[in-house]
Amino acid sequence: MRLARVVLFYSGKSNVQTWKFFATLSLVLFWAAMNDIKKLTRKILRFRDERAWKPFHNPKDMALSLVLEATEVLEHFQWKTERECREHIRHHKNDVAEELADTLYWVLLMSHEFGIDLRKALPRKLKKNAAKYPLEESRRLSHIRISRRIRKTRVKKVP
Length: 159
Description:
Blueprint: H1 2-11, H2 15-50, H3 59-75, H4 82-113, H5 118-132, H6 135-153
């Protein structure tokens, strides 16, 4: 509720003031999320170390585990239409969440083991992707794809 009031307050300000506010807010939320990532990573390390699994966590096996967990996410959606996928999520949300959590486990563990700071890596990658996929071109292509999808799904009348 407080955030809604702040947003309403800034909606009456100039574009520059509004932009600065939301940029600052985004950074604050981003750093809060990164703090949560540090906490999650510490929990993962404690879990692993309590079980003495570190000797088995070499780069190849961690990467394999990440891929295997990602395929378990994929299994939930294999051979399903978009509608069936949404229905599946509604009925199996906890199962999908567990598989996503398993995947995140390996991402966080690997980033820790490899000395990769995700707080720096993710914004850098997003910036790189923004340059690779310019906004206007991406939107134009998205509209084309949506139009094609709509045409494909239209049922033709049989004479």
